[in-house]
């Protein structure tokens, strides 16, 4: 699973938790005449906190996925342009040289 899909899943989880909080308050107060705001307070802050955390994690995943893709393509373009316009073939010899690994 790639980072974009993971980010989208976290954002969907955040939306689900946001909706469940209101649904729980509506179910909890279905037979009472209490104001809806007080019913939301009785449900508790856990769903809101978990929803915010999931939204932040999803946004971070999406930002990292987009920036990683653009950086990768930019570096690839720089390398190809460098090889195309560099009159000195030393760069090619350095890339072909095997590394000494133990």
List the SSEs and their pairings.
Layout: H1 3-28, H2 36-43, H3 46-85, H4 90-96
Helix pairs in contact: 1-2, 1-3
Structure report:
By secondary structure, the chain is an all-alpha fold. It has one domain (3-96). It has four helices and no strands. It has helices spanning 3-28, 36-43, 46-85, 90-96. Helix 1 (3-28) crosses helix 2. The model has no long low-confidence stretch (mean pLDDT 82).
Structural class: mainly alpha
* Overall geometry: rod-shaped
Q: Sketch the major β-sheet.
A: none
Succession of helices and strands? HHHH
* Low-pLDDT residue spans: none
What is the number of independent domains?
1
Give the overall pLDDT as a whole number: 82
Gap from first CA to last CA = 33 Å
Strand content: under 5%
The number of distinct helices, counting runs of at least 4 residues, comes to 4
Task: Please count the beta strands (DSSP E, at least 2 residues each).
Answer: 0
Backbone CA Rg:
26 Å
Helix content: over 70%
Structure, briefly:
The chain has 102 residues and is mainly alpha-helical. It has 4 helices and no strands.
Summary keywords:
102 residues, mainly alpha, 4 helices, rod-shaped
